[in-house]
Write a structure and sequence with these properties.
By secondary structure, this protein is of the alpha+beta class. Helices cover 51% and strands 11% of the residues. It has 22 helices and twelve strands. A four-stranded mixed β-sheet has the order 7-6-9-10. A two-stranded antiparallel ribbon has the order 1-8. A two-stranded antiparallel ribbon has the order 2-3. The longest helix has 38 residues. It is flat and about 85 Å long. The N terminus is likely disordered.
């Protein structure tokens, strides 16, 4: 029998211990990331992959220019003071993607995650959460769906949501408005039980500035309640919005909508030959001919990786096409006959395509469709509905467009109040409340009447 130095006996024993190992498939994460990418980001990603994988061949074709014809057709003016050429293009748009040098919000968040010092599993979950955020910075996907998709526990998903919520900007990765506001308060070091109860349980009273009812309910003076409301309204309900507004992006279409000879609307990939992915023939032949196990193993690994990204890119294309076709089916009158947009949700398109709503969310993120009406971000066709006086429903975008027309044509010296805008919209048959008018007005970028007034 073995003994320790203190004389106590050492015993050897065999014990059975149950542990749980969390494993997220890199293939699933890659597939979802590729679906979420815009066209320019996709091209950068596959080119980067080709640099580390010699088996993958990537050809990104630029449109060849006949310079002789180019100089004959295009008009140029020369500015001698600035010593530069000013170009006036009378031809079709050049849809070559360009982005600003500034990192996107997603890039910044991924960068913050990398320096958190967390393990690989948690990092993958956090990266997935970041890629799932909408343009306002909210997490709309259910925690249980994320856990099932990534094959991890619900507790781990909740933990990682908490980690992402510590990132900047404050309020990011909230599940609802109340949580977003509270996260920003905590970020500023403000912890107040009454204030948080007001936010969680009486946000409608806050929106209506009902200080009297709040003061009565919480046994507070109205001045104290006003301070609470002023603090709440100083926070940002859409913490990510400014990043998307400031981003300078010249979009490249993913799909184009055309009419065939029979007058049918057809969705197809735009310039699909631009991005070509292939398996390098040299490595393919070498894999067949070589007898060296190490060489064969290396090539096999790279072949699998190349094949996976090729399949993911093809799946991305087919998914975007399927989503676009479903959207065109719903909005047929708009595209075919200049009709109004119909109310349409991501869930309804998901049901039509036969996929999860998160797939639709990623499938329309930073994706564009070229139509005879112009180039549109695909997500812009989604809109809730509003009931008219006749009992029918119309797209909220129709109401916003009408509201925009009214404000654009108002007397700039006597701009219309939200109440007057409400009356005018109701006269048009839109059943709408004043606070909803104010919300839509802000969303389409117009200030209040007092701030729109021009002397």
């Amino acid at each position: 029998m073995l003994k320790r130095r203190d004389g106590m006996a050492l015993h050897n024993s065999i014990q059975q211990k149950q542990t749980q190992t969390l494993n997220i498939s890199n293939q699933i994460v890659q597939s979802l990331n590729i679906l979420n990418m815009g066209r320019y980001e996709l091209e950068e990603a596959v080119e980067a992959e080709s640099e580390s994988n010699p088996v993958l061949e990537v050809e990104v074709k630029d449109d060849e220019i006949n310079w002789e014809e180019y100089f004959k057709k295009e008009k140029f003016d020369y500015d001698f003071d600035k010593n530069e050429v000013l170009y006036t293009d009378s031809s079709d748009y050049d849809f070559e993607n360009m982005t600003s040098d500034e990192d996107s919000l997603y890039d910044e968040l991924h960068g913050q995650i990398k320096i958190m010092g967390i393990d690989e599993t948690r990092m993958k979950v956090c990266d997935y959460l970041v890629d799932s955020l909408d343009e306002d910075g909210y997490l709309r996907e259910k925690e249980s769906d994320i856990a099932d998709k990534l094959s991890v526990s619900l507790d781990l998903v909740e933990e990682c949501i908490g980690l992402v919520q510590t990132l900047e900007p404050a309020g990011i990765c909230a599940r609802n408005l109340q949580e977003c506001i509270i996260l920003q308060l905590h970020s500023d070091g403000i912890y107040d039980d009454v204030l948080e109860d007001i936010i969680v349980n009486n946000i409608n009273l806050v929106a209506n500035s009902n200080t009297k009812q709040l003061a009565s309910k919480y046994k507070k003076k109205q001045d104290e309640i006003r301070d609470y409301l002023e603090l709440i309204k100083s926070l940002d309900p859409r913490p990510a919005e400014r990043y998307f507004k400031n981003a300078i992006v010249y979009a490249y279409p993913d799909v184009v909508l055309e009419e065939d000879e029979m007058g049918n609307l057809v969705v197809r990939p735009y310039n699909e030959k631009r991005l070509k992915l292939n398996i390098n023939s040299y490595y393919r032949d070498l894999y067949i001919k070589t007898d060296d196990p190490s060489v064969k193993s290396y090539i096999k690994e790279k072949l699998s990786s190349a094949k996976k990204i090729i399949n993911d890119v093809e799946e991305r294309k087919s998914t975007v096409i399927a989503i676009a076709e479903a959207i065109v089916e719903v909005q047929f009158n708009y595209f075919k006959y200049e009709g109004q947009l119909e109310p349409m949700s991501q869930q309804s398109i998901a049901d039509m395509v036969g996929c999860h709503i998160s797939t639709v969310s990623r499938g329309v993120n930073d994706k564009y469709i070229l139509t005879k009406k112009g180039l549109f971000e695909i997500r812009s066709f989604f809109s809730g509905s509003l009931e008219t006086d006749e009992g029918s429903t119309i797209s909220i975008s129709v109401v916003k467009n009408k509201l925009k027309d009214i404000i654009e044509n108002e007397n700039k010296k006597k701009p219309l109040s939200d109440k007057k805008l409400e009356d005018m919209l109701r006269a048009e048959g839109f059943d709408i409340a004043r606070r909803t008018v104010a919300k839509y007005r802000e969303e389409i970028g117009y200030l209040s009447s007092s701030k729109r007034k021009k002397i």
